[in-house]
User: Fold these one by one.
Assistant:
Number 1:
Amino acid sequence: MREIIVWLSADGGNDIYETITVPNDFTEEQVEKVAKQAIFNNIDWGWYEKEDTLASN
């Protein structure tokens, strides 16, 4: 098994670090997939559409 340090550098210095363990035979693509999931498990995000206030006047 390989131990991988995963990080996300966010604005404002709110960096996130995780340690994941992957099998020795994982490809870079497989490691990346697991790493992304580990980071996204720590992120709460979303979106909304800005309402056009000029159109309602």
Note: Helices lie at 28-40.
Number 2:
Amino acid sequence: MHIEWDEIPHITIDLSVSDVRDALEQAEDVRLAQHDWAVLLFSASSPATLCRIDDALDDFDEILAGPGFIFGADRSEGSVTVHTRDLAYYDGADRLFFLVGDPRRGHAVGLQSSDFNTWP
């Protein structure tokens, strides 16, 4: 999947000069950080990883081990709702791209907790 970031509202964090947490505190429109859970996906042929949002934002480079996506998620009684518009993309090097914008335009997908690897 390729996203034309120049064509959609987003913020870019340059990890060589900024801390993810500090940058997100200044970005009110980043919906990903409003979730308690995250789903990380680095390959369509590999299982996604489910973890708390704090772990995702602290360890995304270890979990993804290269380029990949981070989606906001909600977890309740064994089910997981993945919010596909509440996302970030890690380029595998030094940039994180966060989608921003109107939350009413989001999409959600319901899955079971057993569909994911977990971290840590």
Note: The first helix runs from residue 20 to 26.
